[in-house]
Amino acid sequence: MTTTCTHLDQIKNAPPRTPNGCEECLKTGDTWVHLRLCMTCGHVGCCDQSKNKHATKHVHHSGHPIIKSFQPGENWMYCYPDDLFME
């Protein structure tokens, strides 16, 4: 595991595309546990504790490497390729 994220140049700080919930779950009427924000395109997806795991699916489909917690009071990010949490 690396100690420094090598994908910080891909952070674009795009605004959340669906600020009120998981993009895919809102479309299907499903529920989620916690939300994650893609730091490249602004996709909002549900976490891996949610049954649909849309945030991780988005990362694997899009290749966008970094997500940020979209929960109030949380300020961490995670880089999938580097397997690294950042605060």
Structure description:
By secondary structure, this protein is of the alpha+beta class. It has a domain at 9-67: Zinc/RING finger domain, C3HC4 (zinc finger) (Herpes Virus-1). The protein is built from 2 helices and 5 strands; from the N terminus they run αββαβββ. The protein has helices at 23-28, 54-62, and strands spanning 35-38, 44-46, 66-69, 77-79, 84-86. It has a 5-stranded antiparallel sheet with strand order 2-1-3-4-5. A hairpin with a 7-residue loop joins strand 3 (66-69) and strand 4. The longest helix is centred in the middle third of the chain and has 9 residues, at 54-62. The chain starts with 22 loop residues before the first helix and ends with a strand.
Strand and helix layout:
Elements: H1 23-28, E1 35-38, E2 44-46, H2 54-62, E3 66-69, E4 77-79, E5 84-86
Antiparallel strand pairs: 1-2, 1-3, 3-4, 4-5
What's the alpha carbon Rg, rounded to whole Å? Answer: 12 Å
Helix tally equals 2
CATH class of the domain at 9-67: Alpha Beta
* Helical coverage, percent range: 10-25%
Q: How many individual β-strands?
A: 5
Strand content: 15-25%
Q: How do the SSEs run, as a string of H and E? A: HEEHEEE
Largest sheet: 5 strands, antiparallel
The neighbouring-strand order within the major sheet is 2-1-3-4-5
Low-confidence stretches: none
Q: Round the mean pLDDT to the nearest integer and report it.
A: 96
What's the quick description here?
The chain is an alpha+beta fold and 87 residues long. The chain is built from two helices and five strands; from the N terminus they run H-E-E-H-E-E-E.
